[in-house]
Design goal:
The complex is a heterodimer. Chain A has ten helices and 22 strands. Chain A is of the alpha+beta class. Chain A folds into three domains: 245 residues, Rossmann fold (3-Layer(aba) Sandwich); 61 residues, no CATH class; 70 residues, RNA polymerase II/Efflux pump adaptor protein, barrel-sandwich hybrid domain (OB fold (Dihydrolipoamide Acetyltransferase, E2P)), CATH 2.40.50.100. In chain A, the strands form four sheets. A six-stranded mixed sheet of chain A has the order 7-8-9-3-10-11, with helices on both faces. In chain A, strands 14-13-12-16-22-15 form a six-stranded mixed sheet. Chain A has a five-stranded antiparallel sheet with strand order 2-1-4-5-6, with helices on one face. In chain A, a hairpin with a 4-residue loop joins strand 5 and strand 6. The two termini of chain B are 24 Å apart. Chain B is an all-alpha fold. Helices cover 76% and strands 0% of the residues of chain B. Chain B contains 15 helices and no strands. In chain B, helix 5 packs across helix 12. The chains are: A alpha+beta, B mainly alpha. Chains A and B meet through strand 7 and helix 3 of A and helix 10 and helix 11 of B.
């Protein structure tokens, strides 16, 4: 789809080459680490978050609507205050409830690109971008020159005289980014930057946005509820649900070993929570049933006996790794076989997703030809089988999930 | 469409033609119980204005209007109304912002009180001003002691009286605009480094500019026509406190032609204001 630039897989110590363009001020030493640990309360909603973002790193914040993603950005940008805990940027304290320190939004070196862009309708594109330099005391000419530089970098020069209502959503998104960058922030926050765009524009803008973000020297937080977007844009992912951080890791880790049903659904995985019996490599599932699994390398139970808490595991099973049968499977090679009833069939682009009511329940992906051959329809009794090698168990949360 | 489907309201159940039905659906026909009073009301409002035009001493107009006393009154009116508008903008806009944005308890009571002059008989306003800023008034005595300035029966007094009556028009117009303006844009400005005052200056006020203009024009027009509070507080001294409305009133006794001529000038100014506000006001009335 899109060539993944080498910089995209940047590590925490990611530094740009000396000859490449750096957008954040070099005087800041290439960027500071952003660290937040605390809670934010908005009305009856409560967000508890503990996160760090390294300079040059793009941290994707993924979560369903109402999970607290926007609340997080408002706290980081200084629009809302923490009710406990603190936010630090390098050596700078932005918010500390314990010492009653609060740096308001206008004094924070934090740029925020709003979901709805919030361009000033009474200013043209150029003056929108020139806004930050202008209010910081630059003369009109000087501020406009600074704005022109940003418009040029983002390919917006042709639009400089237009009013916000005269440009498209994709263009507005870029203008909002240019406006935030023109304020010379040391942290960049983007709230669902692509959600207001139509599908086609989103594809183009996503590619360009990713390229722009890799050139930013400070930490970048990008909020999204689109897993693909998160995978493509982010170096690391933070999953928030119901006001709590439920998972952190690289996109690959999160995709392979989702911690919650929400993430598993996004990644298109069957996810089961259960307790592992290390002796038999069988996981007794919380909702009934059992599966024989392969232990992931990082699982403590794979090296030692482990206590009860280390035996709490999650089992991820890809829908395409499950085989469906209309008679009991004769061959004994797959180690997991269980029986159930088809409840629904859904046509995906190149396959059919079969929902099976069984213990455990499962989503199974098969070809349309197989559906016809097996004469599957809601109500058909079936047997499911999955190889133990396809059934990976990894450490999971307590049994309350 | 619906109207056409309904049974006819009139006594004869005859079928309506297709065209009638269309006209009814489009709001084309007006039932007479509404149409007749509407016509009477329109005539009632328009006939006096027509009368003014019919009875105007067109031939003597240049002479009447170049009379020095008339010119003085006109000049004074324009000066005082403009000054009152300037004072209202300077003080009223910040007050409107506070009323729209303050979370402090009692703000709604304050809002009701400061807009009281809208409904208060202007003469009562004049009496109240005399009690407050008159020579023996609470503030008036202090003002005279400290600065030697006395307001009653001076041009400054006219401005004070006009401001008292007209500023609430500006305040309610602008306050409504502040209340409904987009707070998200103000947040965006804050994240770009703008302090609250800078946000007010560079985002909030420019965004409500149309309402600000409408409020200012409304305020100016009200100040220009001010009579009761002015004559009570500032008196009726030609060249010093005699504004156009006062001049009209006086002229009606001594020189009716002059009164009509002066009225004509004020009518002209009013029409100009209405044209100026047309987009803002008339369309707002139509679209809610």
């Amino acid at each position: 789809m899109r060539p993944h630039p080498g910089q995209a897989a940047a590590s925490d110590d990611h530094q740009l080459g000396a000859d490449s363009v750096t957008w954040a001020n070099r005087a800041h030493g290439g960027g500071d680490r952003l660290a937040m640990s605390g809670t934010v309360e908005r009305g009856s909603f409560r967000l508890e978050a503990d996160l760090t973002a390294a300079p040059g790193q793009v941290l994707g914040v993924l979560g369903p609507n109402g999970a607290g993603k926007t609340t997080l950005l408002r706290a980081l940008s200084g629009l809302d205050a923490l009710s406990s805990g603190s936010i630090h940027l390098g050596a700078l304290t932005l918010d500390d409830a314990a010492t009653d320190t609060f740096v308001p939004a206008e004094s924070r070196p934090v740029g925020l690109v709003f979901q709805d862009y919030r361009l000033f309708p009474h200013l043209d594109v150029r003056d929108n971008v020139a806004y930050a330099p202008r209010i910081r005391g630059a003369g009109r000419k000087q501020a406009r020159a600074a704005a022109d530089t940003w418009l040029l970098r983002l390919g917006l020069t042709d639009l400089s005289g237009r009013r916000p209502h005269e440009i498209s959503g994709g263009q507005a998104q870029k203008v909002a980014l240019a406006r935030a960058l023109a304020a010379d922030p040391r942290v960049l926050l983007l709230d669902e930057p692509l959600s207001a765009l139509d599908a086609r524009t989103r594809l183009d803008v996503r590619t360009q946005l990713r390229d722009h973000l890799t050139q930013f020297a400070g930490p970048v937080l990008i909020i999204t509820h689109d897993p693909l977007e998160a995978m493509i844009m982010a170096d690391r992912l933070l999953v928030i649900e119901n006001g709590r951080v439920v998972q952190q890791g690289t996109p690959a880790q999160v995709a392979r070993q989702p911690a919650t049903q929400y993430v598993a659904r996004l990644m298109g995985l069957n996810l089961y929570a259960g307790t592992l019996d290390p002796a038999t490599a069988r996981v007794h599932l919380d909702d009934g049933g059992a599966l024989t699994v392969t232990l992931s390398d990082d699982h403590p139970a794979s090296s030692e006996g482990g206590d009860l808490s280390s035996r709490r595991v999650l089992v991820g099973l890809r829908p395409s790794a499950i085989t469906i049968h209309t008679a009991p499977p004769a061959h004994a090679s797959p180690r997991n076989v269980w029986q159930g009833t088809v409840t629904a069939l859904e046509q995906l682009t190149d396959r059919v997703r079969v929902q099976v009511d069984a213990t455990p329940q499962a989503l199974v992906d098969i070809s349309a030809a197989a559906v016809a051959e097996l004469a599957l329809r809601p109500g058909t009794g079936v047997w499911l089988s999955a190889k133990a090698t396809e059934t990976e168990a990894y450490p999971g949360p307590g049994p309350t999930t | 469409m619906k109207t056409a489907d309904r049974p006819p309201a009139g006594p004869s159940p005859g079928k309506r033609t297709r065209n009638q039905a269309h006209a009814a659906a489009a709001g084309g026909t007006i039932p007479w119980p509404l149409g007749v009073p509407a016509l009477l009301a329109a005539l009632f409002l328009l006939v006096p204005l027509a009368g003014l035009l019919v009875r105007a001493p067109w031939r003597g107009l240049p002479r009447l209007l170049t009379d020095s006393q008339v010119l003085d009154a006109l000049r004074l009116s324009l000066l005082c109304a403009s000054a009152a508008t300037a004072v209202s903008l300077l003080l009223g806009v910040p007050l409107a912002w506070v009323l729209a944005r303050s979370q402090v308890r009692g703000t709604s009571v304050l809002r009701a009180l400061v807009t009281l002059p809208l409904v208060l008989p202007p003469v009562v306003g004049g009496v109240a001003l005399l009690l407050a800023f008159g020579r023996e008034g609470i503030m008036g005595r202090l003002l005279e002691q400290w600065t030697g300035i006395t307001l009653p029966f001076t041009t400054a007094g006219v401005i004070v009286a006009e401001t008292f009556v007209a500023m609430p028009f500006l305040i309610i117009t602008v306050e409504g605009a502040f209340r409904t303006s987009d707070r998200g844009l103000e947040e965006a400005a804050a994240t770009l480094g703008a302090t609250r005052l800078t946000v007010f200056r560079t985002v909030t006020v420019p965004l409500i500019a149309p309402s600000l203009l409408a409020g200012a024009v409304l305020c100016w027009a009200r100040a220009l026509g001010e009579f009761g509070a002015t004559i009570t507080f500032a008196g009726n001294f030609p060249g010093r406190t005699q504004t156009m409305p006062l001049a009209v009133y006086v002229a009606l006794e001594s020189d009716p032609d002059a009164a009509v001529a002066l009225s004509l000038v004020l009518l002209l100014v009013s029409i100009a204001v209405l044209v100026g506000l047309r987009d803002r006001w008339l369309s707002a009335g139509a679209s809610g």
